[in-house]
User: Fold these one by one.
Assistant:
Number 1:
Amino acid sequence: MQKPSIPKGTRDFSPEEMVRRDHIFDTIKNVFRLFGYQPVETPAMENLATLTGKYGEEGDKLLFRILNSGNFLSKVSTDELEHMPPAALATRISEKGLRYDLTVPFARYVVQHRNEITFPFKRYQIQPVWRADKPQRGRYREFYQCDADVIGSRSMLNEVELIQIIDEVFARLGIKVSVHVNNRKILTGIAEYIGEAGNMMIMTMAIDKLDKIGLEGVVREMRAGGLSGEAIEKLQPILTMKGKLKERFPALQEMLKNSPTGLEGIQDTMTILKYLKDLGMKARFDLDLTLARGLDYYTGAIIEVLAEDVPMGSICGGGRYDDLTGIFGMKDVSGVGISFGADRIYDVMNEMGLFENLGVASSQVMFVNFGPEEERYCMNILQKLRQERITAEIYPEAAKMKKQMTYANNKNIPFVVLIGSEEMKNGRAGLKNMKTGEQHTIDTEELPDEFKKNSRAAGG
RNA sequence: GUGCAUGUAGCUCAGUCUGGUUAGAGCACCGGAUUGUGGUUCCGGGGGUCGUGGGUUCAAGUCCCAUCUUGCACCCCA
């Protein structure tokens, strides 16, 4: 028999890992709710027409496509099968795909349900997404995104709140982060300023890599992309611009004074950063002109969050998209959102050792099983304990004591109750503390109070 | 999609360079010391088609090729 396995880039999660993952999800969910966001879910698969063309050329390549059911070749001739380009053939034999992110399905959702929605609509969504990427550190083929989006409002207050959410989530999780903020409109303005408006994508993709490949690398890449030497020359001071925001913004405004779009981007960004400064952020935050982000649909603010202590790439990102719903037939609806990468956050926290004091979820007490009589007797006590919200279980068979004790020990169950025939007769129970090893007998009626007392003493 | 590594017990790894009896260790698991007491100790035990397929050789875990897995870099990204 072949060893069972799971597809490349996917993972199983053990109980220990689930406790930790749930901790992340719960933290994020609680903060989302705190800011008035409401949950929605969408299907794992979407029609391919919904997904294609939204993530750029690269994104399309990374879509998982689902083969049509039944005879998926019935409408394809042998000739087409042999000579059609693979991409064209793919659309003929597959009309569904796994979602690539949560933002595009959400845009589809908003358009489809527009009459039921009160705008501005603040929604959160925590679900897995799939990308046919080659897996490596911090990159999986199935991973969870935790998204919060506001749709139907152009106010920069939304950007401010989303960054506050970021700040609060990472503070609660105990990760030190830096929040990088930029604006596509500023990038557009810069492209216009250096006389390369048509090459904006090449320019932004190149400068996005500044911290990775250095200034020379960026210059090389832009030159290869067809930007003029003059333009590159003109761009350099902007890339290396340092100093306080108070100095950088006026300098930028002066440079982009002929670009209404650029000036608008600067104004928006100033508004956001001013708010954040007044509100007092726990995380470091800054204008980062080298931040570009790849997703095609961003038009305004762009946000990216990096862990300060662990190199992991972006653990949260987002931005404003002015016309994502337009593609689905609903014009002039602006949205802005962020997305937490739960799996990367997990990896960061794991490397930082932040999970160590997170116990494994398990029962607070286990009853030893001595046989049919005792079993029946204990089941009644168990029921009473559970009614008092005390997590409790009985070992399901009358196995050897050693085996039952080992089970309790391995599951980190703090208390074991022993009720044999003697105890049954006089309504008593042996109560053993697994940490200290000490044991005494008490009346079975006292058990609920005993555990409530102990759970308080244990701090939770 | 491109390049480079990697794979030996449930887990972490040694053995591969330099082919040569029956492939090892630690941890985990099971049993016993201890018939109503786990976590410490001692004793014993089960476990492996050496990722898979092919090739070279008298002989392959070891060398060669292919393939898959996992990881790293690029591309891109959470």
Number 2:
Amino acid sequence: MVTLKDVAKKANVSPSTVSRVMSNSKDISENTRKKVTKIMDELGYVPNITARKLVTNQSNTIGLVLKTISIEMRQNPFFTEVLTSISSVCEEKRFSTIMTTSYTSEDLLNEVKALVLSKAVDGFILLYSMENDPIYKYLVDNEVPFVVIGKKINNDPNVMFVDNDNIEASYNLTKYMSGLGHRSLLFLSENNTYEVNKDRLTGFLKVCKEDNIQHKYVNEVVSRDEITNLLINEDIRKNYTGIVTTDSMLNLNLLSALYKLNVNIPDDIQTCTFTDSYLSESACPPQTVVNIYPENLGKIAAKSLLEILQKEDAVMHSSIIPTSIIERDSTKQLKS
Amino acid sequence: MVTLKDVAKKANVSPSTVSRVMSNSKDISENTRKKVTKIMDELGYVPNITARKLVTNQSNTIGLVLKTISIEMRQNPFFTEVLTSISSVCEEKRFSTIMTTSYTSEDLLNEVKALVLSKAVDGFILLYSMENDPIYKYLVDNEVPFVVIGKKINNDPNVMFVDNDNIEASYNLTKYMSGLGHRSLLFLSENNTYEVNKDRLTGFLKVCKEDNIQHKYVNEVVSRDEITNLLINEDIRKNYTGIVTTDSMLNLNLLSALYKLNVNIPDDIQTCTFTDSYLSESACPPQTVVNIYPENLGKIAAKSLLEILQKEDAVMHSSIIPTSIIERDSTKQLKS
DNA sequence: TTGAAAGCGATACCAA
DNA sequence: TTGGTATCGCTTTCAA
């Protein structure tokens, strides 16, 4: 194995010089730089990252903290898109990523602590936002740099948030439905623990009030069977003209339930949801959605964190990613 | 920050002793073990993994090599399930994982080389199998331990493969369709570059021949629109009673196309596919599938690799994961 | 069963 | 602009 010392010896310089060449230090002559670079190539030298980490005390990796939820959550296209964009930003800056794997909140906290204490990561990106989150608190208390993808909480000036304006997004989507002529809407949400769902409900209710739309919102009805029962109980075809879901996987289950009940979209009822992905694009039928641009959420989050980590003069700032509505076959103008 | 030396000093022992306690060395007295453990707890000592890596020259992380394909590939539930199960096995054994991020085969090879040369990983899991793969060759040539999830190639005794018997799986699925009374089937496949798709076609054709089933197989027709055109051209309702797809995302597009054409499943036509996941379970309607148990593929692959890495006496072996058919609403007995 | 000390391969400080 | 060298935190001989 070729080490820095080998290079130094062969090039007739000191280890420090070689190190400087690698870090692109500017106080080094063009001559020695060339010489050293050449030798490095000849020898096929590859720096040992571990050794570097030990002395710099920097891991050059960031931790990705996922929600403590079922495996299905991790298959949610929203996450894979965010994750992919984070990875590619990191890749560019020669950072690695490491993802949490815990399913209970207790395990998760411990996992994060272990990552911090063992110096395995330089910072975190939290892929959720939740009030009274012990992990949030731990990171703040221990001054570990991190950014949150999700809603701002506590108004802590030392924490960066990257989010959409979900109230607005939901307001726009509902307003769009209202514009199509809907006067009775059903709103389905997985739960109301996370901030994002609260906001989407808020936006929905605002339009309902403004435009005098009959409505009902239901939480925690998630599986295909549960939804089927709900649709039957609500006599869906008769009492509603549209259904809004907060999530693309929930929407998937809804469509499956409607298919089972032989309710046609958009003729018998119309549907729309949040978070665009192949799931919505290739649904039965393709769904009108709010695109929240997960790839931008991830990109900005990663860039912001890396900036904090690498630049002295980086300035804390939160970001709001704009959203847009994509119209597809699941909605259309209602005949009056 | 608490280091091993701090613990040693406080416990009045040497660093070596503390190190031995951590590694569960057996030549250490019960007394000192207890004493040291207690101090470690008191001080909240967490070993610095980086330092350990440097001296042991082991990274305790394994590299996951993904196909060089579009982002959609990474959203395929098959991958997320395999990945999740690999991660959880690694987590248990205190290994980390690192995933490749390259999209071109050239970049991918370089990424793998860099991982090897910088000692960033101890071994790899390849999440695909392909003939004449330069990465495969590189790993073999450089004696890097790895296991392949996918079909055995080259019959190399020094490489471990974990796979399903896809010929058999496809045979069984097609036989099942035949048993329902189907006598004309359409077979859709994304491509025939990877071994897995070749095998699935082979199994399909075998049954068609045995049971005298009219059939047609089509590659590279993937998007919703392409499929829609195909279905129209083939006059699908009239000429076929069933459609087999090789992949759950392809199946998703098929269902969307059928929905658009107002073709009902299973009344107008029946469908089935490979790889179970929420996509198939919550489809319109839920799909009959071959479960290839991605979680077991990942689990066995990870366990096999870790065994090689950790145990002296580990013995090379390839594994075949059994498959099974899950019957759902998309198929039923055909009335004759 | 324990301790002393020599590294592992980089970086970074202090001198020159 | 360069070199010498202590150092990061741990493991691992070798000796006691």
